Amino acid sequence: MKNMFGMLKQAQEMKTKFSELKKNVENTFFFGESKDGRVKVKVTGKGLLVDISIAKENYDDKNMLENEIKSAYFEAKIKADEFCESEMNKATGGMPLAFDMKFFL
Questions:
Q1: CATH number at residue 28
Q2: 100 found inside a domain
Q3: Domain for residue 97, yes or no?
Q4: Number of C-beta neighbours around residue 35 at 10 A
Q5: The model's pTM
Q6: I need a surface site. Which of 33, 38, 39, 89 has the fewest CB within 10 A?
Q7: Where are the alpha helices (DSSP H) in the chain?
Q8: What pLDDT digit, counting tens, does each position of 76-86 carry?
Q9: How many distinct structural domains can be found in the chain?
Protein backbone atom coordinates (compact mmCIF):
# COMPACT_ATOMS: atom_id res chain seq x y z
CA MET A 1 0.00 0.00 0.00
CA LYS A 2 2.89 2.35 0.82
CA ASN A 3 4.29 1.78 -2.67
CA MET A 4 0.95 2.72 -4.23
CA PHE A 5 0.82 6.02 -2.35
CA GLY A 6 4.36 6.73 -3.48
CA MET A 7 3.36 6.11 -7.08
CA LEU A 8 0.32 8.37 -6.72
CA LYS A 9 2.49 11.11 -5.26
CA GLN A 10 4.96 10.77 -8.14
CA ALA A 11 2.10 10.94 -10.65
CA GLN A 12 0.79 14.12 -9.04
CA GLU A 13 4.27 15.67 -9.06
CA MET A 14 4.65 14.77 -12.76
CA LYS A 15 1.24 16.32 -13.52
CA THR A 16 2.30 19.53 -11.77
CA LYS A 17 5.60 19.61 -13.68
CA PHE A 18 3.85 19.16 -17.01
CA SER A 19 1.32 21.85 -16.18
CA GLU A 20 4.17 24.27 -15.46
CA LEU A 21 5.99 23.12 -18.58
CA LYS A 22 2.93 23.71 -20.73
CA LYS A 23 2.52 27.22 -19.36
CA ASN A 24 6.23 27.95 -19.90
CA VAL A 25 6.16 26.68 -23.50
CA GLU A 26 3.02 28.67 -24.33
CA ASN A 27 4.48 31.89 -22.88
CA THR A 28 7.93 31.67 -24.45
CA PHE A 29 8.56 33.19 -27.88
CA PHE A 30 11.20 32.53 -30.49
CA PHE A 31 12.32 34.66 -33.38
CA GLY A 32 13.62 33.82 -36.80
CA GLU A 33 14.61 35.83 -39.81
CA SER A 34 15.37 35.24 -43.43
CA LYS A 35 18.97 35.17 -44.60
CA ASP A 36 18.77 38.73 -45.90
CA GLY A 37 16.99 39.92 -42.71
CA ARG A 38 14.03 41.39 -44.56
CA VAL A 39 11.50 38.91 -43.12
CA LYS A 40 11.18 38.30 -39.38
CA VAL A 41 8.77 36.02 -37.56
CA LYS A 42 7.76 35.32 -33.96
CA VAL A 43 6.51 31.89 -32.87
CA THR A 44 5.40 30.37 -29.59
CA GLY A 45 7.21 27.49 -27.96
CA LYS A 46 4.64 25.27 -29.63
CA GLY A 47 5.69 26.64 -33.01
CA LEU A 48 2.58 28.72 -33.66
CA LEU A 49 3.24 31.77 -35.82
CA VAL A 50 2.09 34.88 -33.92
CA ASP A 51 3.78 37.72 -35.79
CA ILE A 52 5.47 38.41 -39.10
CA SER A 53 7.35 41.50 -40.23
CA ILE A 54 8.34 42.19 -43.84
CA ALA A 55 10.71 45.05 -44.65
CA LYS A 56 9.38 47.80 -46.88
CA GLU A 57 11.65 46.87 -49.77
CA ASN A 58 9.71 45.92 -52.85
CA TYR A 59 9.56 42.20 -53.50
CA ASP A 60 9.27 41.73 -57.24
CA ASP A 61 9.43 37.98 -57.01
CA LYS A 62 6.54 36.33 -55.15
CA ASN A 63 8.43 33.03 -54.87
CA MET A 64 11.39 34.79 -53.29
CA LEU A 65 9.15 36.36 -50.63
CA GLU A 66 7.48 33.02 -49.91
CA ASN A 67 10.89 31.37 -49.51
CA GLU A 68 12.06 34.15 -47.17
CA ILE A 69 8.98 33.66 -44.98
CA LYS A 70 9.51 29.90 -44.87
CA SER A 71 13.18 30.37 -44.02
CA ALA A 72 12.41 32.73 -41.14
CA TYR A 73 9.69 30.44 -39.80
CA PHE A 74 11.93 27.37 -40.03
CA GLU A 75 14.66 29.11 -38.00
CA ALA A 76 12.22 30.13 -35.25
CA LYS A 77 10.54 26.70 -35.23
CA ILE A 78 13.87 24.93 -34.71
CA LYS A 79 14.57 27.17 -31.70
CA ALA A 80 11.10 26.44 -30.30
CA ASP A 81 11.51 22.67 -30.78
CA GLU A 82 14.92 22.66 -29.11
CA PHE A 83 13.52 24.64 -26.17
CA CYS A 84 10.56 22.28 -25.84
CA GLU A 85 12.83 19.23 -25.92
CA SER A 86 15.07 20.77 -23.25
CA GLU A 87 12.11 21.58 -21.00
CA MET A 88 10.71 18.06 -21.45
CA ASN A 89 14.04 16.59 -20.38
CA LYS A 90 13.99 18.78 -17.27
CA ALA A 91 10.45 17.70 -16.42
CA THR A 92 11.17 14.00 -16.87
CA GLY A 93 14.65 14.09 -15.41
CA GLY A 94 15.99 12.87 -18.76
CA MET A 95 13.98 9.66 -18.40
CA PRO A 96 13.15 8.24 -21.84
CA LEU A 97 9.42 7.88 -22.41
CA ALA A 98 7.62 5.40 -24.60
CA PHE A 99 5.69 8.16 -26.39
CA ASP A 100 6.10 11.75 -27.49
CA MET A 101 5.03 13.98 -24.58
CA LYS A 102 4.94 17.10 -26.80
CA PHE A 103 1.51 15.87 -27.83
CA PHE A 104 0.25 16.91 -24.38
CA LEU A 105 1.59 20.47 -24.62
A1: 3.30.1310.10
A2: no
A3: no
A4: 11
A5: 0.70
A6: 89
A7: 2-26, 62-92
A8: 999 999 998 88
A9: 1
